[in-house]
Amino acid sequence: MPSQTTERIKVHVQSRYEAEISVPSKFKFVHSYEITIENQGFHPVQLLSRHWIITDANNIIREVKGEGVIGQQPILEPQEIHQYQSWSPIPTSVGKMKGSYLMKNLDTESLFEVFVPEFQLIADFKLN
Q1: Structure confidence at residue 71 (pLDDT)
Q2: What one-character DSSP code corresponds to residue 41?
Q3: 4, 73, 76, 101: which has the fewest C-beta neighbours closer than 10 Å?
Q4: Measured between alpha carbons, how far is 22 from 33 in angstroms, rounded to an integer?
Q5: What phi and psi, each to the nearest 5 degrees, are found at residue 20?
Q6: pLDDT digit string, tens, across residues 79-95
Q7: CA–CA separation, 100 and 114 (whole Å)
C-alpha cells in the first residue's frame, strides 16, 4: 500500500479494480480507492482542496481539482485519522494516479501542500 508523509501528514492509498461496474468493451475501467490521512503532527489541520493527476495507458493525462474530498473539508486533530473512499474511471485497463491536498494549519493559519503518493490502477485480468 503506497504511503507518503509531508509536513507530518501521512497519506496511505489502497486501490481496487471494480469489475462489476466496469465495461471493458466500451473502454470504461472503474477503480475505487481508499485514502487514509493521518495527522502525525502537533497542530490541528484542515483539508481544503484536492488536485489529482490521472494518467491512462495511452499517456493521456486528466487533472481533477476541487474543494475538499467527497464533499467534505475534514479537520484532523493531532494523531487523528480521516478515511474516505472514492473512484475514478479510465479508458484503459491500466493507469496511475497521484495528487495533493491543500491543507491549513488551524493554529498558525498557514497553508501547505500534502502529497498523495502515486498508485496504480490495474484491472485484475492484467495481473495474470
Answers
A1: 93
A2: S
A3: 73
A4: 15
A5: -70, -20
A6: 999 999 999 999 999 99
A7: 5
pLDDT at residue 116, as a whole number: 98
**Contact 15/2 with Cβ under 8 angstroms?**
no
Place of cell 473512499: 85
Residues 9-29 as b or e (16 or more Cβ within 10 Å = b): bbbbbebebeeeebeeeeeeb
Instruction: Name the band, by pLDDT with cuts 50, 70 and 90, for residue 127.
Output: confident
Domains of the chain, with CATH numbers? 3-127 (2.60.40.1470)
* CA–CA distance, 128 with 126 (Å, rounded to integer): 6
